[in-house]
Structure formats: structure tokens, C-alpha cells
Amino acid sequence: MWKNFTSRRKLLRMVLRAYSDGGARGNPGPAGIGVYICTVDTTPVATYYEYIQEKTNNYSEYFAVYRLLQLVKKRCSFATKVEVFLDSELVTKQINGEYKVKNETLQQLHKSVVQLKSEIKIPISFTHILREYNSIADSLANKAMDSKNKEFQWLFDNGGESGQLQ
Question: Which of 27, 39, 139, 140 has a CA positioned 20 to 30 A from the CA of residue 148?
Fold first, then answer.
């Protein structure tokens, strides 16, 4: 009984760290996104990458956050908090409401990100980090651009709902 109680308490306090990155070769050019989710103790939870055709760097950064939030919504209902880290200072400050979104294309994507975030019933924070601390998500975005493909891997053994990302 205590073992079950302890594991439930641990799940009830699970904080996830999520890293996203997007990039385009040529800006605009062939673009890809990468998402890496882990626990606070660095246990991998999920990886995701996707080739997204010809886009700009900023669009790719936003789309990576959008896909990340979709993953959280569909698969991470067991989490109590999600800390999102990205290396785009612009996108971080726009999502946090510090900067306005002037580009019309990005305004739509920003609106989708804010809407999706509001649908998720757990606290989510967005923090800018230096590129060198985002190497896994960056490598996944580059893998997407190189392979012109997408792949999702669920690496965690607890919780989460199944479902395809659209």
C-alpha cells in the first residue's frame, strides 16, 4: 500500500522540462522543428521532429512550441507543471506578452499557441535559453530538415494518452 501511495505522490508532483527549436535553411527555406521533453531529473519522456516545408526561422520556432503544447495536451496529463525552454528570445518574449507580434503570419500562429496553452490545465512557463543549452531540440530540428520526415517517440513508461498529432 505504501509503495502505491509513494508512486502516486511522485506522479502528483511531476514537473516536466520541455525544449523546442525550429530552424530554416535559407530563411525562408527548408524548415524543421524539434521537441524534447524530460523530467526534472533528466529522464527522457518524448522526442519529436517534423519537416515543415519552406518556412522562416521565426515561423519554425513558433510551430515547434505549438507541437510541443499539442504533445503536452495529448500525452502529459500526469504532469503538474511544464517548464518550456527555447532559444528564440523573440518568440519567448512574444508568448510571455513582453513584445507584440507584428508579422501577420506569426500573429495567427501566436494566437493558436496562446489558445492551446489556455486549454491545458497545468501551469506552463516559457524561458529563453542560450542555443548551446538547447542542443537536443536543435539536433532534432536538423534531423527533420535532413530527412524531410517526422517521427515521434514516447520514451516514458507512465501516464499519458495516445493520439496522433495533427
Answer: 39
